[in-house]
Amino acid sequence: MYHTDSSGLLLSTSPLVFLHKLMDGEVFNYINQLYLVDIPAYMLYLISILNIKIIMIKTTDLNNQKQINNYMEQREPFIIRNASCIRTTSKKWSPEFISSINPNLKIPVKRYRKDNSINVSNTTLCNYINYLIERRDCHYPMKGDILYCHDIPMFSMMKELISDIDLSFLTILPKWYHYKWWRYVQFFMGPKGSWTPLHFDCLYTHNLFFQVYGKKRFVLIEYKNHIYLNRVGWRWFNSDTERPQLNSIKDNINLKMMEVVVNAGDILYMPPGTIHSVRGLEESISFNIDFHTPRSSLYGLAKVFQGMPIKTAYYNLICVLGLVFKIPSRCLFFFYRSYLNYIS
After folding, report:
1. Are residues 48 and 155 both part of a single domain?
2. What is the DSSP letter of 130?
């Protein structure tokens, strides 16, 4: 089991409180925000004598391509703090800024139900931003469903945003994705408390997640641990990572989870199959790119024999044709494009 305090609160925790938490069975996985040199000596001592394993998410820099490749090869999640490619963007973008470009743009918004069903409705960008503004002073948790602008191809809908992104991150992606890279981007914008339940990315892709505005908390679980979770359908899980005492997670001591807080300007990488849930700790704007390598595209396609829906496997087949058989993306994107609006 695990618990973390990724806000940095542990640094002000008294030794007695900290010991009490440990004796209660809470094991803290220190993420990159808490460097080992910053952890008080008494905490390190208690951790050592109680034989507690500290799990820290790997960190790297965009310029260290060798290390990035190594982490990806080892299927290790990693984070790039204050990444140069979105540093300027994170200072510029806000919901009001996005709305000012095209306030009458029609966008889909989602409501996630407790049964993992997804209700989708449409509104204008201006109306949605007004919804966010009205909720800035609300206390969390809010009453009623939270509307979440989730997984939409915003760069294709608002090409004015593309020039705000520095392209240095493209070294992480296979060259097949470089031509009109922005077509593969999925965009997220939501209020504090916005929530994506526990799931893995449906194509079994690598995931490069860019946090531009606000702050989010991720819970990451390796795919091999899915046997400890309550699976629903192909890629969803109804296990509650925020309140594990209410479900079977608490009883599975072999289940290892990592909690990561992603701040404005950070990039988070998740390997294929990473099971994750996401909570908006603040009003936020972010985007991600799901991408395959030749190896992961073949592995993803083979998942059709493990319950992957045929429609999902179809998109993996497109990626195999491009990444393995070298058919250019400009020839295949027409067949792949519907994935950007696909609700699995």
Report:
1. no
2. H
